[in-house]
Amino acid sequence: MAIDNIRAYSHLTDEDIEEIGRRLDAIKQEVEDSLGARDVAYIKGLIRFQRGLELAGRATLLFSHKRPCFWAGSGMLALSKILENMEIGHNVIHGQWDWMNDPEIHSTTWEWDMTCPSSQWMHSHNFVHHKYTNIIGMDNDVGYGILRVTRDRAWSPMYAFQPVTNVVLASLFQWAIAFYDVELGRFFAGKQTWEETAPRFWEAVRKSRNQVLKDYVLYPALSGPNFLHTVAANAVANWTRSVWAYAVIFCGHFPDEAETFTKEQLRTETHAEWYLRQMLGSANFHGGKALTILSGNLNYQIEHHLFPDMPSNRLAEVGKKVQQLAAEFDLPYNVDSFPMQFLKVQRTLLKLTLPNRFLVASPHNAPEVRSNEAFRENPDVECQLHIGADEHGVRHGLKQGLKLLKAIRPGVREVVGCYLGRTKKN
């Protein structure tokens, strides 16, 4: 039910796709050529602010027995952890700041304030997820192995409890990620030996142990008789950070119209098609400067997937160019408000607690899944579209096609039928 041929699905010519690839390469090169002092000042200033905020939060928690100090300290600590994870750690580990050649701000030396070892995150996220983005059966981030976010994952009774699983995952997100690259599921399924599993397992155990000792033993001990209050405050900060990271990541990957793909698509994929897969498989959300920084600039998830090693502070300016490029080639640019993207994700998670036979929309044309078959089974839609630009240079491509496909979902078929009829007459 996922897309198996992105060239046909995109309604672009081979020349169009290659041109998109060239244009995106040029955008990337332009940014790389302009990196300099203002970018260095941005990341170093942010790191200083984050560390100062953490220090202030932990100092305030020395008096955590007082309610105002408890909440003020918890808030500052939570904010510092969010900044360190989202805008600093995640992006440094991606190699976005390696060009500075600063040994302290480098993907090979940075160890973030998170239970997951940086080295394991670099493999499971930087390599696996970003190379095989939304390829069913290859990208483990499609549901993280425990959630059903697409109909392509076969239903089982465990998904009836998905609302509960979802809440637990959000609350313990850093712990779900801690052993993510260890792939214990493969070990218990007999697909991976203990000799292969053990090094990563014990590395994750050591990192998790150190995080627990730091947050729940060492720093609380410094507050003396307020030990338990400080433990609780650290738990609040970590929970807040986990829920926020979950919300941001899910809004960029699983809202309506974020496409998934089959292994067949990957088999002959070109560099330009990889770009196209990133554009169609990711989603953005609106937000001001504060939301942008707190989300690690992942409100520009499309741009981050196109250019994962581009400094995050440049994604906003790049986003305007990518959106213009999408409009020029009549491609969708998936963006909505943060609350709307979040609600769409939650709706999908609730819907997919049910087996496919109880779902009304076509398995090829639903908010949570589309495939090339959606156009084949709706010739009235396909006949309105054009591969590439027509003789007048006008495009009637994928963006228009998806609007028409959306309109013929159950409940609005008659409306789109009239529209299609009028279009044919014109």
Automatic annotation (TrEMBL):
GO cellular component, one term: membrane
Highest taxon of the lineage: Bacteria
Fatty acid desaturase domain boundaries: 76-335
GO-annotated molecular function: oxidoreductase activity, acting on paired donors, with oxidation of a pair of donors resulting in the reduction of molecular oxygen to two molecules of water
Coiled coil: none
BP-aspect Gene Ontology terms: lipid biosynthetic process
The protein's name: Fatty acid desaturase
